[in-house]
Amino acid sequence: MSDPYDPSREGAKMSFAQDMSYGDYLGMDAILGASQPLSDAHDEMLFIIQHQTSELWMRLILHEMRAARALMLAGQADQVFKMLARVARIFEQLNNAWDVLRTMTPSDYTTFREALGASSGFQSHQYRLIEFMLGNRNREMMKVHEHRVDQHQMLEGELAQPSLYHVALRALEQGLDVRFDSDVYRMDTPHQSSDAVIEAWLKVYRDPQKHWTLYEMAEKLVDLEDYFRRWRFNHVTTVERVIGFKRGTGGTSGVKYLRRMLEVELFPELWHMRGAL
Fold it and tell me: What is the pTM of this model?
């Protein structure tokens, strides 16, 4: 019989009394310690971790989109494309997470729903920031964050900056030597489809080789919204499967509210122009 494997014989460091360990670097005590159910229900841990990990992924989405916006403004498109592709894949991860949550039945959820109080994913400031960065800007949605001055200021700061789509449209103007009406760049209202923008994107798609950088940018944005829409759709079906048409814990109409959100288009011109090609 061979001796038990000893990684120290191959040079692996085994003592971390004086050095930073894996757990130290990742702050694992704080992360794992944050998952604290408020009831004795078995499935509450699933519910907490599902939402905590989603918030961590959203933090990375914001990190990538802020960098992508800055690089787009600097004209460094190649790096932007990589970041937008990464964001789309993060949304794919968020989509897959709904499959895990859907293993929780309505009966399971009722065992701890009262422990949630009025808390709801509707109140996620990071989700709101993502929407604002992508162009779905609605000041009415900021009211729920007024009790947190830091979060409210963060959202105000985002409304003072051009959205990711605004920056893409500036690149479209420069690439085609066109100018859009100022209404296209309204900062604190949801983006509305513009016929002039549709015509500009049509020029790109009718001659992709001539406008390859803009063409690739457009497809990366469509890819991102495609995954984002799937995430919203999976959210709706998961909520309907678990609570039916009950009101949400945060007071929204639940499934009815989420279905309305399915109608939101982030980059409408990129979808509307397809039928005219």
Answer: 0.91
